[in-house]
Each structure stands twice: as C-alpha cells, then as structure tokens.
UniProtKB/TrEMBL annotation:
Classification via PANTHER family: D-GALACTONATE DEHYDRATASE-RELATED, GLUCARATE DEHYDRATASE
InterPro entries for this protein: DgoD-like, Enolase-like_C_sf, Enolase-like_N, Enolase_C-like, Mandelate_racemase_C, Mandelate_racemase_N_dom
Protein name per UniProt: glucarate dehydratase
GO molecular function: glucarate dehydratase activity
Mandelate racemase/muconate lactonizing enzyme C-terminal domain mapped to chain residues: 150-244
Pathway: Carbohydrate acid metabolism; D-glucarate degradation; 2,5-dioxopentanoate from D-glucarate: step 1/2
Enzyme Commission code(s) on record: 4.2.1.40
Reactions it catalyzes: D-glucarate = 5-dehydro-4-deoxy-D-glucarate + H2O
Enzyme class: lyase
Length: 406
C-alpha cells in the first residue's frame, strides 16, 4: 500500500455560544482543517488539524512530495521525514505530523479491517469517561447562551449533567478576577455533591495568586489543579498545596516530560493527540508516566469527530488512564462525520469499533461547513471580541469585568 495523494479542506462548525478562555476566545465556532490521505488501493484515511484557512491547507499540500509513494505502515520513518527534531527548529510540523499520522493509522486499520486501537495493542476499555468542560461564554446575537455569573455557571453545569451524565466537571478560568471565579468554582461543588472538579486558568495567574486560589479550594473534591501558573518552575512552587497539579501546556514533549520526572512539578500529564504529534507519541508518553507513577488524562484542543475518534482510541488502550478525559465536543452544534455527533451516555462515549478510526465523512456536511468557512473566515484565537483592544498577559492582570453582560 502506497500513498498517492493528500487533500485538505478547512471547515468551520458552529458552537452553542462563544467560549472565553485566558488567552482570548473561540468566536462562536471551531475552525478545523480536514486531511484526507489516499492510498493506491482506493482507501482514504482521515486526519484533522486545528485552525485552518489557506495557510493550513497550503501547509498540508506542501507535504505531498514527502508522502507520495510512502507506505502508511512505516510511521516511524514518516515521523522523521516530516518532523525531524533538528529540522523542526526551523519548520515545526508536529501538528501536521499528527494529522497525517491519524490518517495513516486510519488507512492501515481499514486495509487490515481492524480498529486503530488494535494497532496500538488492543483496547482494555470499551468506553472512555469524560468531564464536562465548562466555559464562561458570551451571548449569541439573539441574547442566548451567556455564562458569566455563578448562577449561570451552575445552571449550565446542571443542564450538561442532566443531558450527558457527567460526574466530573472542569472549569476553564483565567477570564475574570480570580476571586470571582473562585465563587463560581465553589458554587459548582456545592450544587453537585459527590462529583469531582477541576480548575484550569491556563497559566494566567501569578504564583501568589495561584497559591491563594489553591488554598481556598483545598477542602473541595478536586481531581487536580491544572496549569495554575505559567511554567514548570512556577508550578513547582505550588507542590505543597496538597492538590494534584496537572498540565497540558508545559509538558507537551519528551524533553519536558524527562525534566518533570527528574525534578517533579506536575502530577498529571494531559496527553493531546495533536500537541504530542499523534496517538502513538501519546501512548509512548503514557508508558513513561506509568513507569514513574504520574497520572494521565486525555486532553482536548477543540475537536471535531475525527480527532475525537483519535482521543477515544487513545483512551481505550491506556492502562493508566486514571482521570476522565476532556472534550469541547458537547459545545458543538454539529459535526462533519457520517451519522452526526457521537453521543454521551452516563458521561462516557463508546470507543469506535469499525475499521481504522471508525468514522467516515458526511460529504454534504463537509461541503456545508467549508462554504461557511469561506463566508466567515477565521478568527484570532488570542483575542476576545467582548474586549476590543485587549490582549493577554502572563501572568494576567487585566481581567474581564464580571459586571458587564455580553
């Protein structure tokens, strides 16, 4: 089996409402680039890439000469052909590599008529548990969807719990002043006794602010405190809080993982199939974490159904998946995979059992959302439309005003 072509299509899929985060916002939609790798046997493997537009499509097409004639089984050779660590100092292709790896694994699985998790050692769980992913949200044009106050936050979380069965809840913070978000976080814990909770300000707090916040939540049933401040050295200063510390920002490659093993800063590594350069890299990282008794969870970087499938196959094979996975997925109004959005049952999603990734494209949906992208274009992830002229600092000191309805 040899690769004969590669295609890229950028789509934008609406969200229920704009999602705010410490670095900016998702402006009411996700922009993703769908990657298709075609083999000489007529099979097509699917990948997905964050962001999009002409630059992402051009970057994918630019790999054509690297890929045509390559056997998709030879993934380790592909890793060095695309993302040699020295060459990547000049041209970092890690996320491109991830999208191509997804597609190659999909091709191999289809060719052998086995699911991707069988290529990774076989699944040890049929379903992957997920946490709710709670965001502060600006309102839609019709005034719906806002999540700003503690009351709105609790109402939204309870609705998600009722609909999807979540028993673990993660609050994405770093938007409003820490003391305001503290009230919201404590309100969530009070409203859902028996559940577990996570707070993630995306490294926006100073060490001192992060310490004050951590001291104020020590009595709650916290899964972990995620990226409370920026950098391994900053987080390391908070290890005496007595709350497990987690990251998806400062341990995202093997050099950083080795540093964290030698001089511990975080207890839980959030493995992202895109950030780490593919599913296989995450499996390798999880094995290191197993050896050194670090916790792992599956991270979400804003997925459609293709990348969600990679997250599910990853979660299926990890013996040390000790925490529920994250997903933005329930914020989407639609998907580009055949059959529509995957569903949660009791807070879990079933691992696809079909060959390859187990998902196929709904071509009509791809065309619809490719046209919507052409109409709306992209958006700057690191800007918040509710705060014109604002840009993030690290640590931040310019918070959104919680008294202003959006």
């Amino acid at each position: 089996m040899k690769i004969v072509d590669i295609r890229a299509t950028t789509v934008t899929v609406p969200l229920e409402a704009p999602l705010r985060h410490a670095s900016g916002a998702h402006w009411g939609r996700f922009v993703r680039t769908i990657v298709e790798v075609e083999a000489d046997n007529g099979l097509v493997g699917l990948g997905e890439l964050g962001g999009g537009g002409e630059s992402a499509e051009a970057a994918v097409r630019g790999l054509r000469d690297y890929l045509v004639g390559h056997d998709p089984v030879n993934l380790e050779a592909l890793r060095f052909a695309i993302a040699n660590p020295t060459a990547s100092l000049y041209n970092n292709r890690i996320q491109l590599l991830a999208a191509i790896e997804f597609a190659c694994l999909d091709l191999v699985g289809q060719h052998l008529d086995v699911p991707v998790h069988d290529l990774l050692g076989g699944r040890i769980r049929d379903r992957v548990p997920f946490a709710s992913y709670l965001f502060y949200r600006t309102s839609n044009a019709d005034g719906t969807g806002e999540v700003r106050t503690a009351e709105q936050l609790v109402e939204h979380a309870l609705a998600l719990k009722a609909e999807h069965g979540f028993t673990v809840h993660k609050l994405k913070g770093g938007v409003f002043p820490p003391e305001f978000e503290l009230d919201g976080y404590r309100a969530l814990a009070e409203a859902m006794p028996g559940d577990r909770f996570r707070y993630d300000p995306n490294g926006a707090l100073s060490v001192a602010q992060a310490r004050r916040f951590g001291e104020a939540i020590k009595d709650l049933p916290n899964d972990y405190y995620e990226d409370p401040t920026w950098g391994l050295n900053g987080v390391r200063q908070l290890r005496d809080l007595g709350i497990p510390l987690a990251t998806n920002t400062v341990v995202v490659n093997f050099e950083q993982l080795a540093t964290n093993v030698r001089d511990p800063a975080v207890d839980v590594i959030l493995l992202d199939t895109t950030f780490w350069g593919g599913i296989r890299a995450c499996v390798k990282a999880a094995a290191v974490c197993e050896t050194f008794q670090l916790g792992v969870a599956v991270h979400s970087s804003g997925e459609l159904g293709i990348q969600l499938a990679t997250m599910l196959h990853l979660g299926a094979v990890l013996p040390n998946l000790s925490y529920a996975a994250d997903a933005h997925y329930h914020h989407l109004t639609d998907d580009i995979i055949a059959g529509g959005k995957m569903s949660y049952q009791d807070g879990v999603i079933a691992v696809p059992s079909g060959p390859g990734l187990g998902v196929t494209l709904d071509r009509a949906k791809v065309a619809e959302y490719a046209e919507l992208y052409k109409e709306l274009g992209g958006y700057p992830y690191d800007r918040d439309p509710a705060r014109p002229g604002w840009y993030p600092l690290v640590p931040n000191e310019r918070w959104a005003d919680p008294a202003i309805a959006t």
